[in-house]
Amino acid sequence: MESNRQLARIKTRHLEGFAAIARHGSLKAACASLHLSPPALSKTLKELEEILGVTLMSRDRGGVRLTPEGEVFLEFAGQSLAALRRGVEGVASLRRGGAELLRVGTLPSVAARLMPPAVARFAELSPTTRVVLRDGAHGALTDELRAGALDMVIGRMAGPEAMQGLSFTQLYLERVVCVARPGHPLVSAAGLNPADLSGWPVIYPPERAAIRPLVDRWCLAEGVTGLVRVVDSVSGAFGRSFLRECDALWFISEGVVARDVADGRLTVLPLEMGLTAGPVGLMTRPDSLASRSRDLFARALRDVAARIGDS
Known about the structure:
Blueprint: H1 2-9, H2 12-24, H3 27-34, H4 38-52, E1 57-60, E2 63-66, H5 68-95, E3 101-106, H6 108-111, H7 115-125, E4 130-135, H8 138-147, E5 152-156, E6 167-174, E7 176-180, E8 201-204, H9 212-222, E9 228-232, H10 236-245, E10 249-253, H11 254-262, E11 267-268, E12 278-284, H12 292-310
Helix pairs in contact: 2-3, 2-4, 2-5, 7-12
Keywords: DNA-binding, Transcription, Transcription regulation
InterPro entries: HTH-type_LysR_regulators (IPR050950), LysR_HTH_N (IPR000847), LysR_subst-bd (IPR005119), TF_PcaQ (IPR012787), WH-like_DNA-bd_sf (IPR036388), WH_DNA-bd_sf (IPR036390)
Protein name: LysR family transcriptional regulator
């Protein structure tokens, strides 16, 4: 009886506020994401703790930390919010004529190479599902996945901290390549070795990019020093345009530039970069509810990834 009374008093705003604070690790960041003032969000959390009769979070200079009770409640609060969102979307899909909605986040390493054939294959498997693609940086997309705003994210596996709370299913391995425009002096250089890259301006992966530690490790192992970094970026649009303007080099996942290389617009320098190989795969929330569309999209990804792996 007591649990029923507690359930009747818990509102969606309580769950969303608690989940946002846990996700961001700070009250200030959670307020910004929810467009609420700190007093309003603090009041919402206090109401929830009073309803449950426990302390869900402790606050210190390091931020907000979940209590054991908070850890337990967060898991089920996330499941409840995910189920509620899916229910709302299901009603909306009926209004649109019954089409199911699938929200997919794509990282740059897969947006150009994997996703076009995967979406085409998925259209054959589930022609009535509406796919919404969202591209962006790893941290931004995985944050949206944890929040339930995305159903899955496709891309490279990042470090342990960035992958916390997510499930990862590997599709294939992908290396980083160093590319240049076809007429670059290093393209025709005989016996090219990593030391020859020194002194040339480069586009280098930024700090939060999944490939940054891999490229750092490769440069350290190969003794590559003296790189003149023009800009830290993984933007495909910028990289393609910039290399047409100058003799810069570009460290980027091979999937981003696979089509450019095949069409002769860019050239991969003949360097052994197997040390940069890392898994590309499907990221989901382990507590989310799998749908028919999500399962079929995963199948489409596996079908296309098998062809990439063979190549």
